[in-house]
């Protein structure tokens, strides 16, 4: 049975079916069943999709900022850019936690045995590395080199600054392209794969229902045969009782 905090209960047969489906071998890991159901729930999936859509807008605003579409010298625009950057990092962090929870819920064997889960996990952690490690290093390097350029002559400083800006822009463009590709894959795969899981679950439940209906039909037929056999035996007993009574009467005579 599930924990008392669950708003519903699952029969042993359904629980066993769910454990087998998700590769959960420990029958006492009821919390993993609850976690799995929550991760696959419609509300959770819609929350992930909304985060993805928000992330796409964050990428769009970041691209405008890097390509000069936003005047970052205006205070409120700079504040917006900072909020977008923090939001993007937070969303990536949520996706990392989501991936870890999926591994815990379904088990490493089932998770890493599914190529789509593996691809999703690799892309999520690779994006986290870009967002939390590589991206800050690029900005730190840019700030450091900008300070060094101030000590050069105006002509050399201008050339160095231009070259550095081109390199930085190219690097950031690659990073943003990778992140946009990941978010697109994540969005399309998340929706399509969730729908596939839901359809597979419905198909399996329908198959299970048909099996149970067949078993019920056989049980009813067997019960009917038993009742008929029981009736025949009762008739036989009555006939034997009559025969015995007649034999006793003849014996007395």
TrEMBL record:
<keyword id="KW-0812">Transmembrane</keyword>
<keyword id="KW-0406">Ion transport</keyword>
<feature type="domain" description="Ion transport">
    <location>
        <begin position="43"/>
        <end position="199"/>
    </location>
</feature>
<protein>
    <recommendedName>
        <fullName>Voltage-gated hydrogen channel 1</fullName>
    </recommendedName>
</protein>
<feature type="transmembrane region" description="Helical">
    <location>
        <begin position="46"/>
        <end position="66"/>
    </location>
</feature>
<keyword id="KW-0407">Ion channel</keyword>
<keyword id="KW-0851">Voltage-gated channel</keyword>
<feature type="transmembrane region" description="Helical">
    <location>
        <begin position="117"/>
        <end position="138"/>
    </location>
</feature>
<dbReference type="InterPro" id="IPR031846">
    <property type="entry name" value="Hvcn1"/>
</dbReference>
<keyword id="KW-0813">Transport</keyword>
<dbReference type="Pfam" id="PF00520">
    <property type="entry name" value="Ion_trans"/>
</dbReference>
<keyword id="KW-1133">Transmembrane helix</keyword>
<feature type="region of interest" description="Disordered">
    <location>
        <begin position="143"/>
        <end position="166"/>
    </location>
</feature>
<feature type="transmembrane region" description="Helical">
    <location>
        <begin position="86"/>
        <end position="105"/>
    </location>
</feature>
<dbReference type="GO" id="GO:0030171">
    <property type="term" value="F:voltage-gated proton channel activity"/>
</dbReference>
<keyword id="KW-0175">Coiled coil</keyword>
<dbReference type="InterPro" id="IPR005821">
    <property type="entry name" value="Ion_trans_dom"/>
</dbReference>
<keyword id="KW-1003">Cell membrane</keyword>
<dbReference type="GO" id="GO:0005886">
    <property type="term" value="C:plasma membrane"/>
</dbReference>
<dbReference type="InterPro" id="IPR027359">
    <property type="entry name" value="Volt_channel_dom_sf"/>
</dbReference>
<dbReference type="GO" id="GO:0034702">
    <property type="term" value="C:monoatomic ion channel complex"/>
</dbReference>
<keyword id="KW-0472">Membrane</keyword>
């Amino acid at each position: 049975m599930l924990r008392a905090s669950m708003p519903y209960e699952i029969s042993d047969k359904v629980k066993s079916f769910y454990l087998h489906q998700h590769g959960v071998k420990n029958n006492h890991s009821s919390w993993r069943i609850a976690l799995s159901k929550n991760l696959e729930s419609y509300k959770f999936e819609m929350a992930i999709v909304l985060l993805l859509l928000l992330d796409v807008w964050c990428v769009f605003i970041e691209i405008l900022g890097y390509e000069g579409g936003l005047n970052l010298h205006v205070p409120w625009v700079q504040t917006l850019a900072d909020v977008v950057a923090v939001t993007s990092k937070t969303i990536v962090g949520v996706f990392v936690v989501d991936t870890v929870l999926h591994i815990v819920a379904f088990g490493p064997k089932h998770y890493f045995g599914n190529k789509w889960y593996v691809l999703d996990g690799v892309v999520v952690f690779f994006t986290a590395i870009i967002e939390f490690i590589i991206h800050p290093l690029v900005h730190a390097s840019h700030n450091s080199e900008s300070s060094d350029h101030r000590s050069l002559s105006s002509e050399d400083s201008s050339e160095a600054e231009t070259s550095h800006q081109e390199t930085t822009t190219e690097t950031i463009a690659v990073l943003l392209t990778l992140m946009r590709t990941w978010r697109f894959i994540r969005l399309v795969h998340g929706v399509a794969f969730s729908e596939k899981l839901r359809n597979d679950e419905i198909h399996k439940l329908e198959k299970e229902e048909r099996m149970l209906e067949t078993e019920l039909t056989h049980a009813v037929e067997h019960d009917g045969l038993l009742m008929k056999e029981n009736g025949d035996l009762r008739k036989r007993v009555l006939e034997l009782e009559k025969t015995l009574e007649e034999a006793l009467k003849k014996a007395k005579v």
